[in-house]
Amino acid sequence: MLGVRCDHPQQVEDSGALFMPTPKAPLFSGLVVMERPMRRLNWERVVSILLIAPAVIAIAIFVYGFIGWTAYSSLTKWDKLLPDFTLVGLSNYRKLFANQRFQIDLRNTVVFTVLFLISCLIIGFVLAILLDQRIRGEGVFRSIYLFPMSISFIVTGVVWRWLLNPGSAELGSTGINALFDMVGLGFLKTGWYTDPNIGIKAVAIAATWQMSGYTMAMYLAGLRAIPEELREAARVDGASEVQIVRHIILPLLQPITLSAVIVLGHISLKIYDLIVSMTGPGIGFATDVPAYYMWDTTFRGNHFARGAAVAIILLVMVAVLIVPYLVWSTRTEAEV
Amino acid sequence: MTTQTRKLRRSKKPPLRWQRVVLYAVLVAFAIFYLMPVYVLIATGLKSFAEANLSRMWDLPKGLHFDSYVKAWFGSEAEGFRGLNVNFMNSVYLTVPATIISAMWGSINGYILAKWKFRGSDVLFPLLLFGMFIPYQSILIPLVQTLQKINLFGVKFYGSIPGLILAHVIYGIPITTLIFRNYYAGIPTELVEAARIDGANIFGIYRHVLFPLSVPGFVVVMIWQFTSIWNDFLFAATVTSNPATQPITVGLNNLAGSYIVEWNVQMAGALLTALPTLLVYIFLGRYFMRGLMAGSLKG
Fold first, then answer.
1. Can you name the residues that pair with B151 across neighbouring β-strands?
2. Chain B closest CA to A206's CA: distance in Å?
3. What is the least distance, in Å, from the CA of B248 to any CA of chain A?
4. Which residues make Cβ contacts (< 8 Å) with residue B263, sequence separation at least 6?
């Protein structure tokens, strides 16, 4: 309702005290009191709009304008370096969904997202519960679990490419496979990302390594917000620790799980850097994803319209996840 | 209160010894899992070329050899690959100005959205935030075309560091604005009103009340922006194609994608790439965490 948050009625009263009406002119006092702060607020309101305007304009052009531009491009014939904006309707999309590589990409994205989400949530939750048991050196453990977050997916990809390198006949086992041999778990050896049946799942291992600590940190923050009295009361009622986790902690952490699903989900739909540095599209596109396909077909193949169509599909997938969350989270914030 | 009940709980029900042992064993096992790649990174980087054998990846280095780092940093003319030194400096020239500009800009936006709400600002805010979740593929084609057209005072924006700075500053607006807005919303409005009574205007309130209290906010935002700009690959690979202007993530990817570069040099390069953000994490981890939490909106 209020235009500017600063112009509370209280404010006017306060400044009224500064401009005490003289007894000689009681009739005009109200005017004097009202006029000055109002005029000042007006120019300040203009200034406040001017200050936020550059950001609003930049986002309007570089986010919404550009998305519109990409969407328009996806409806054209633009198939070489030189733009060709002849409209062809939805034919790029039709061709895409019939395209075998794109079908594999979509399947890979689903497999990757499900695996990555589930493993991050489980590992993150378990680690948070364990760390919440008054652990000596908790800070050290926390830092170790979380540090992968701070490094680039490119670094992660380079390292994990070698870790999950299955080796060869002349080299013998390398990386994790060699480690399995050393500890007597040789039967677990596989071809990792070089095995078309594993493919993208191997990339999900590296991604989980990088992001599960983040999930742990979110859950831990949530756990610390649950009052100890609540658990204590349950214990007094004879609940076991497992029951407490199952019936008290899990339900209370549901909002955290939702946030984690949204954050991890949009990262997983957009995953690109890790694929580039770890595997590339792989044999038979076993590790290809839409984000990689988009870059490949647009900037290497110069199929701009097709690349734009992939980008728009990617955007729609992310928007389906993000928009309800954004609306919900800014709404609940406004209620508080 | 909490510590009291915790003490109470401890005295009432002493945890079983073997349970604690299992607990610590699981935690240590996970720590080993997270540290395993770091071990390989460091150990391999320190091995001599003769020692760096893929099938003996897990062996400890027999001595300290810095050849791999030297080669990763300076490159090798004989073998025909570039070192990362130029790319490292490019990343510095990109990250430092982009971080400072986006922090300043975010601070102003956050100030307005937290303390000068206007009609429609509640609608504007989520629209702004959407910008940080979009897959950047959906703006990449227009971005390249636009940068190709920008030529300010003889500075080309496509294929150059200024172009990358522009991209990172603009696409950094949502997150920097979000962090500052939430930070400033936590500063009591009474302080603002007190300054008003003292005659401060919109600039004075920022200059004398909010800005001096902003240091933690700036630290969080700058760490966040520093990390994400340093680690970015998509913009860097799309906007810069000349190896002499590419940031370090692209340089590392080229190094690692080349068949002539030994894998221990690749590992050394990976560590050089990770080092700046790792150091920030080690020394300013607390603030890093806050940025992360802001990234999930409801901090």
1. B156
2. 10
3. 10
4. A162, B44, B52, B54
Residues of chain B where predicted confidence (pLDDT) is lower than 70:
1-15, 291-299
* Cβ-contact B34, A209 below 8 angstroms: yes
Give how far A81 is from chain B: nearest CA, Å.
11
**How many CB pairs (< 8 A) connect A and B?**
300
What is the distance in angstroms between the Cα of B116 and the nearest Cα belonging to chain A?
5
pTM of the model: 0.86
Q: Chain B contacts of A253, Cβ < 8 Å?
A: none
Q: Bin B117: left if φ > 0, else alpha if -120 < ψ < 50, else beta.
A: beta
Which stretches does DSSP call E strand in B22-76?
75-76
Q: What is the pLDDT of residues A282-303, one digit of tens each?
A: 888 999 999 999 999 999 999 9
CB < 8 Å from A in window 144-203 of B: 145-146, 170-171, 173-174, 177, 189, 192-193, 196-197, 201-203
Q: Is B118 on the interface with A (CB under 8 A)?
A: yes
DSSP A169: T
**Residue-wise burial string across B237-263, b where 16 or more C-beta atoms lie within 10 A, e elsewhere:** bbbbeeeebbbbbbbbbbbbeeeebbb
Determine contact: A301 vs chain B, CB below 8 A: no
Name the A residues in 94-113 with CB < 8 Å from any B CB.
none
Q: Is the pLDDT of residue A1 over 70?
A: no
Q: Which residue of B has its CA nearest to A265?
A: B133
pLDDT confidence tier of residue A31, bands split at 50, 70 and 90: very low
Buried b / exposed e along B89-102 (16+ C-beta atoms within 10 A): ebbebbbebbbebb
User: Is there a contact between A146 and A217 (Cβ–Cβ < 8 Å)?
Assistant: yes
How much is the pLDDT for A334? Answer: 60
CA distance A287 to A275: 7
Query: Which whole number is the average pLDDT over A314-327?
Result: 92
C-beta atoms of B137 and A276 within 8 A: no
- Domains and their CATH numbers in chain B: 16-65 (no CATH), 85-295 (1.10.3720.10)
- Interface contact flag, B119 A3, Cβ < 8 Å: yes
Distance, in Å, from the CA atom of A145 to the CA atom of B161, rounded to the nearest integer, reads: 34
A335 to chain B: closest CA residue: B122
Q: Is B298 left (phi over 0), alpha (psi -120 to 50) or beta?
A: beta
Gap between the Cα atoms of A107 and B152, Å rounded: 45
Q: Indicate if the alpha-carbon torsion angle A171, A172, A177, A180 is positive or negative.
A: negative
ipTM of predicted assembly, 2 dp: 0.88
